[in-house]
């Protein structure tokens, strides 16, 4: 309903945008009474049931705002009968929104589910605006399934600030020839790229210490990773990402799953001896950054996760990190 209202805001010139938005907000309201009746339910009197649902809503609203219920029901009737240009446009957007939602489900199953049957609704899209959006959606689906088939070995290197993530990434890159990506570096680079449309917005976020929207961060991270698909080194180290389940889930849905993870842990005593970054207190622990909350999810994929104690010297820690990465490489070879 909310996404339909957003699509209504994008109604082409010549249509009553406010009418489209009202229609978008109320056209499914009867579901609150009769439920969501789909074609698979085999209900022959869907229209009649929904009509009585709207009549009940009309009855409920009458004591509070006499005409509102009839306005809602009339908007639904207009939508169903498609007698106006606004209703025709919104009926088309209803089908398009269903296709978008189906693709979101595909993303949540990490490419294991193909809901191609919903794409049959594309024949219902006829307007110039709808066709242009449909083309973008089809390109996104094609890209989604293509990248699921062309996996890139990614190792997340995560841990509390000051635990030595960047140092270990540099050593791994030198030892194995891996590519090393830091999300903070990617964001800084793109904020200075005057050809990038969101550069000014990114710069403002960084300058004012405001979190960059997660979807945008993951999109830029994915582009950096994709640039490595042609590189013979293939394996990519991602430093300092993810720091929360939300970030991890977004990456898994939009990019790929599963991914390898090195969690660098450090005792509280050792953390207190390490210099803090500007504006940060010494001794920040995993829980402060929601890193520990990731472990349960990360451990679910057997062979993809290693926790490395980082209390020793850089050389000692790297020895443990190196052994873990060799294990990842061997695991990947067995999965191929």
Question: Would you give an account of this structure?
Answer:
The protein is an alpha/beta fold and 336 residues long. The chain is built from 15 helices and 5 strands. It has a 5-stranded parallel beta sheet, with helices on both faces. The longest helix has 24 residues. The two termini are 43 Å apart.
Observed structural traits:
about 325 residues; alpha/beta; 5-stranded parallel β-sheet; 5 strands
Strands side by side in the biggest sheet: 2-3-1-4-5
CA gyration radius, whole angstroms? 26 Å
What can be said about the biggest beta sheet?
5 strands, parallel
Shape: elongated
Q: Output the helix-strand order.
A: HHHHHHHEHEHHHEHEHHEH
Work out the helicity level: 40-55%
Low-confidence stretches: 278-288
Question: Strand content of the residues, in percent?
Answer: 5-15%
């Amino acid at each position: 309903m909310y996404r339909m209202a957003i699509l209504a805001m994008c109604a082409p010139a010549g249509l009553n945008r406010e009418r489209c938005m009202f229609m978008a907000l109320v056209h499914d309201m009867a579901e609150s009474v009769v439920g969501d009746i789909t074609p698979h339910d085999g209900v022959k009197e869907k229209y009649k049931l929904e009509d009585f649902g709207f009549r009940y809503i009309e009855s409920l609203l009458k004591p509070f705002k006499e005409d509102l219920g009839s306005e809602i029901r009339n908007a639904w009737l207009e939508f169903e009968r498609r007698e106006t240009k606004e209703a025709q446009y919104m009926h088309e957007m209803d089908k398009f929104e269903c296709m978008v939602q189906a693709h979101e489900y595909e993303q949540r199953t990490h490419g294991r589910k193909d809901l191609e049957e919903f794409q049959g609704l594309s024949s219902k899209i006829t307007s110039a605006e709808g066709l242009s959006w449909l083309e973008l959606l089809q390109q996104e689906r094609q890209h989604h399934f293509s990248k699921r088939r062309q996996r890139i070995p990614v190792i997340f290197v995560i841990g509390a600030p000051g635990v030595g993530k960047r140092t270990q990434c540099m050593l791994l890159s030198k030892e194995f020839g891996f590519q090393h990506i830091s999300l903070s570096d990617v964001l800084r680079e793109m904020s200075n790229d005057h050809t990038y449309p969101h550069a000014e917005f990114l710069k403002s976020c960084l300058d004012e210490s405001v979190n960059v929207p997660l979807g945008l961060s993951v999109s830029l991270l994915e582009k950096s990773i994709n640039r490595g698909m042609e590189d013979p080194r293939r394996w990519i180290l991602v430093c300092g990402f993810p720091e929360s389940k939300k970030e991890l889930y977004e990456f898994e849905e939009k990019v790929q799953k599963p991914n390898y993870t090195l969690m660098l842990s450090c005792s509280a005593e050792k953390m207190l001896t390490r210099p803090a970054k500007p504006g940060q207190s010494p001794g920040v622990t995993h829980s402060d950054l929601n890193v520990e909350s990731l472990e349960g999810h990360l451990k679910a994929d057997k062979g993809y996760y290693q926790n490395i104690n980082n209390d020793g010297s850089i050389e000692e820690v790297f020895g443990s990190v190196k052994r873990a990465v060799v294990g990842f490489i061997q695991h990947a070879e067995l999965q191929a």
